[in-house]
Prior knowledge:
Layout: H1 12-37, H2 49-76, H3 88-118, E1 124-125, E2 129-130, H4 139-174
Antiparallel strand pairs: 1-2
Helix pairs in contact: 1-2, 2-3, 3-4
Amino acid sequence: MGLSNTQEGYGALTKLFHWLIVILFALQYVGGNIMTDMARGELVLGLTQAIYYNWHKSLGLLALAIAIPRLINRKVGQLPDWAPTLSQGEQRFIHRAEQVLYAAMFIMPVSGYLYVMAGDFGVNLFGVWRMPNPIGKWEELAFIAKWTHIISGYVLLAAIIGHVGLVLRHQLFLKDGLLMRMLPQKKS
Length: 188
Ligand code: HEM
Ligand code: HEM
């Protein structure tokens, strides 16, 4: 398996970016819901709310840093041929869902960033660097960015459920090995 995609399949770089973002988004959903549900002063799994917020912001910005080379990799490289077992309707669905997934990779972290900066909460990146606030307190922007973050989070979740549902339907019921296209391949 080479680094780049070929007509036959996805390359190592696409697969690496894919699974890194899956892990980060999973942490963002779990952490995002824990931190907004817990009370101030409460501990969840031994961690304070401030730690959850800090990690949520830091990992979200890390996800943005990964989304940029991922998008470039997708734009400059080629895409493999469609899996032969996908119907035309499924191809159209995948295409739309992937547009939403890529858009969300940027809208989620950017809206989160704008919210915490315009809300003047700031970001202490991984607890080691308090990032400068280039925006300053701006309540209207904070309000719009916060709701963009929350609503986009639900839209993204719907796209993920559709995407994973389609892959699992093929993998488990049609048994055509669709999932294998995104897993590391042994050299043949
Ligand atoms: C990269 C992907 C990201 C994902 C998938 C994500 C996802 C989420 C989710 C699911 C929630 C819970 C929303 C709810 O209350 O229902 C949340 C809340 C929040 N996120 Fe993110 N987030 C991301 C990045 C960021 C970044 C980069 C920041 C800031 C730098 C941030 C700041 C926040 C804040 C402050 C909240 C709490 C909002 C509230 O008070 O309700 N997020 N996020
Ligand atoms: C955060 C969640 C996810 C996002 C944002 C996401 C995004 C994407 C994107 C954009 C592609 C197209 C290739 C690319 O440009 O990278 C893709 C392909 C794929 N994803 Fe995901 N994915 C997610 C979760 C999952 C999960 C959990 C699975 C496994 C059950 C999965 C399995 C696949 C497979 C098998 C393909 C290749 C489909 C094909 O072209 O044959 N994805 N994903």
